[in-house]
């Protein structure tokens, strides 16, 4: 167990990253920092950032690097992240973001960068069954037998499909992953900082592989 681990989890959207990051954050007792969750919170609050972000997110695009780097910079300065550590989920997504993150974490470098590897075809199947609680963000997998309206077990909120989980938006996100985010695999492996973890299989087994990979990088 590493108290205060600082981790980056890369991987295609729909690879099960979110759920595994929640488990990892409990395991290592560090905050789970999901830039997607931060943007969705801004959308719910109706802030200027939220209004802009919603259009981009619903189309499956990426928010500008400068905005994202500013958001993460502020978040990493908060007491929980600066004293204990964090799990970054959904950031960095471009080489420019990774370079900025290197500058932000110069004094307290990241311990491990993990690529949670799930092939595109499998991710497409998973995303079409993905449902999310609108209030607390808990992820579910639809089987078709759920009662409607579907109520979240955790907080009683509405469980629905994400607005950006339409087939068009999903395909655009996966294309952007290949062109913008997958170069990060090269970026971090060239610095000998990357561990690739097979994300296919039972979630408990994937979780075990993830914690083993983190321990091995220390
Ligand atoms: P996620 O919850 O990680 O799937 O992110 C949902 C959406 O938020 C993405 O499809 C992007 O539109 C946006 N987003 C989240 N993180 C970033 C980031 N690091 N850079 C650019 N856009 C992001």
Provide keyphrases for this structure.
single chain, 218 residues, Rossmann fold, five-stranded parallel β-sheet, 8 strands, 50% helix, globular, binds adenosine monophosphate
Shape descriptor: globular
- Which homologous superfamily in CATH is the superfamily? P-loop containing nucleotide triphosphate hydrolases
Biggest sheet, in brief? 5 strands, parallel
Question: What's the oligomerization state?
Answer: single chain
Distance between the termini: 10 Å
The total number of structural domains is 1
Produce the secondary structure layout:
Blueprint (H helix, E strand, L loop, with lengths): L5 E5 L6 H12 L3 E3 H11 L2 H11 L6 H13 L1 H5 L2 E4 L5 H10 L7 E6 L2 H9 L1 E4 L5 E3 L17 E2 L6 H15 L1 H8 L3 E5 L4 H15 L1
Parallel strand pairs: 1-3, 1-4, 2-3, 4-8
Antiparallel strand pairs: 5-6, 5-7
Helix pairs in contact: 2-3, 4-6, 7-8
Bound molecules: adenosine monophosphate.
